[in-house]
TrEMBL record:
Top-level taxon of the source organism: Bacteria
Residue span, F5/8 type C domain: 98-188
Organism phylogeny: Bacteria, Bacillati, Actinomycetota, Actinomycetes, Kitasatosporales
Record region (Disordered): 1-95
PANTHER family: DOMAIN PROTEIN, PUTATIVE (AFU_ORTHOLOGUE AFUA_6G11970)-RELATED, PTHR43662
Biased composition (Pro residues): 1-17
Pfam families given in the database record: DUF1996
Coiled-coil ranges from the UniProt annotation: none
Protein name: F5/8 type C domain-containing protein
Record field: transmembrane: none
Amino acid sequence: MTFPRPGPEGPRGPAPEPGARGRTPATPPCDRAVPNRAARRGHAPNGDRGPLESAPHPALRPARSRCVPIPLTTRPDPPRRPLHAGSRRAGGVIAHLRRPPQAADTLLSQGRPVTASSQEGDAYAASAAVDGNLTGTRCSSAHSDPQWIRVDLGAPTAIRKLQLVWDPAYAKSYEVQVSDDGSTWRTVHSTTTNAASTIASLYGGRTTCKAPADASAYWMPSLYNGDKKIFPVGPQVIYYKAGVTDYTSVRPFPKGLRFVVGDPMQSADEFRRHRGFVEGWECGDGYFNIDIPASCPSRPDVQLDIRMRAPSCWDGKYLDTPDHRSHMAYPVVKPGTNDNMCPASHPVALPMIEFKMAFPVNGDMSQVRLAGGRGYSFHYDFFNAWEERTLKAMVDHCIVGGLQCDAHGYDETNPQRGAALNADYRLP
């Protein structure tokens, strides 16, 4: 998340380009997803909800749990035959098998190297979660959140199923993440973000944003090259900026505000004329592409980029509306001036969000598509679940204060103004 120096949109100039001074990206891209309520409820952050895909290092990063068993199999189990069960008590989770796996099953996690964020004592080591002991051992972490457990499968492995069985004191929220190298992780399942997500399930939960206080949901459709899903590489950027000329009038998002930008059913012409359109699909020296280009230069430095701005004027009444759009509006030009202002129907100026995503794909692009169709169907959702004091501190210091901030709320050209957040991206 970055807070560029405020400035009006439209006549006064475009948003900062990638790599602009002061841009520190969110860690990888705030991928709490808002479910798409229009056409693709099955999608998840950075991808579609479904079976876990090939990855050597699955990791469970629970937000409200202790130490959790990781049963991984190469094929689904018959109904009503859970492989592992967990019982969460004050000391952690008891791990055991309800019944041994059948011979045809390959239990990937059993006996593999395992580490955890902490352990309650020597008798409750993380290895107990995968030792195959049905009744005699259990693992348990420290009595504080968050905690995590990680199993190293040692090599790229096709994972068909991960099953966790909790007792009534189950973890309220957790994430499953996978990695190809043990250092860069992507979320493939999150209990805090799904089609039934609410402000109660998001607020205070885990996040992949740099600021722990930002538990907001940011969602966009997956990108595919043929049948292969293309994931953005490294941290991605979501800008918070001023959409009106009077940047001192910008206020923080109200808790629970949600909206959709764009429309999965929009035509190519509607996408081009959308108020949030910036430069369309970009690759190499090609800009303003309405659809995904058929080809891009085959160079290591070339990626497929997309940018789109959100409406930043709120009606001050509704946190959401049936179409997920009517309560928000884009700024308008003040009569007789070159200034942008909020219309009378939507008088409250909020931060303007701008998605900036980059995908590592080039060369022949003829099979590149969004999960829901053509490139002009691009859209995204936002569901605000920031902790209020932190968001207000960042908006007041950076946007209202006229600074171009990084994720700490620090403007390197104005060091005397200090930072809004500390080294851990939290309020001092």
